Amino acid sequence: MTRCILLAILALSLPACNLFPKSGGYYEDDGPGDRHPADISNIPDAVPRYEAPSASGNKPYVVRGKMYYPMRDATGYRERGVASWYGKKFHGRRTANGEIYDMYAMTAAHKTLPLPTYVRVRNLRNNRSAIVRVNDRGPFLQNRLIDLSYAAASKLGIVASGTGIVEVEVVSPDDSKKQIAGAPAVEIISTASAASPPAETETSAAPRLFLQVGAFTEWDNASSLRIRLERAGFRPIFVQSVLIQSPTSESKKQTRIYRVRIGPLANVEEADLLAKQVAEHGIYDALIIVE
Q1: Which of 59, 85, 227, 270 has the greatest number of C-beta atoms within 10 Å?
Q2: What is the pTM of this model?
Q3: Structural domains of the chain, ranges and CATH numbers in brackets
């Protein structure tokens, strides 16, 4: 992972701003480390608690010419996307809020969530989940939603692949207390060995990946883009019509949007390759969509 030079201007150290991915499980010059706890799966989740906003890391900032505006309030935040992870290259260095990055702690980096924020990250492929504390900025590689610590990525089962399809949801201390209070008072006896890895279970509805190459308010524009890309060999491609309401709008008026999408796709690697290919046709802001 390569440190973003532009952030030096902002006096921020953002170790999660990896811009040069290595093929395989992790980024160039990064990895899981030579020495680590014997059983990473037993590292406990972060415990949500009320904390004052960080004195650093919550101001607008620029990376590669793009301005990011951190949220002031993340109440109700929930989003699906692609998770990545970062490890030994930045172990012991400072995070965006001035703390020391510990790859064996349950932490994460996000581009706009307030620092700190606690989130539950669920792997939509195997249904594993973990609660992490967001204390860093990143990842700034295109189409990545959250950058997990090595420990969190291990718990979710995405270390080997390097990425995972996840859902990220903000968790408040009150949410955690309610969950604990509502848990059934029963003893669960397991016959599995303590050394056995947690079992992977498939979710009831497997997530589907698409590459969104455009969104328009006019059907003709969407149709023209679909036809142009279809002629270039991109298939299956379709136009999805949806009604949306602006979150800042006080009226109940909705706008119809025509989304041009390619897919469904097999995995993140296919989506990344497709994004590079459509960029050669002048589309530089294609988005990986998880449904």
Answers
A1: 85
A2: 0.80
A3: 6-181 (2.40.40.10), 209-290 (3.30.70.1070)
